[in-house]
Amino acid sequence: MKIVDEFKEFIARGNVMDMAVGIIVGGAFTSIVNSLVNDIITPVIQLVTGGNSLAPSLVIAGVNFGNFIGQVINFLIIALVVFLMIKGINTMRDKMEALAGRKAEGDGAESAPAAPTCPYCLEEVKPGATRCPHCGERIEA
Q: What would be the CATH architecture of the domain defined by 2-106?
């Protein structure tokens, strides 16, 4: 019975649910990316190369290496889009956390003193630092 309870706890975790949603959305997104590669990118490559296949010179002994190149392009497009989506989500999350932090400061909570900044590059430095870790300039105490 303990294994069943552990399995229920594992399934109920937010990360597992997020992963499941990601896999489902990724499966649906695959058809969009395949259409982009097959209907837009491949014809442009064919137009540039003047051939009827993606890489006509790469068909060797009946093996179509052009299909492999198409799959690599497909993977790179998916990886780029996922990277951009995650980067955007992380940026939004950081901004939301910063907004939440500002609201908490405005609610009468005592805030920590502001960290000193370098007078040359205006980057944040640790209190008591004699040199800026960003630009290397000497900081007067």
A: Orthogonal Bundle (1.10)
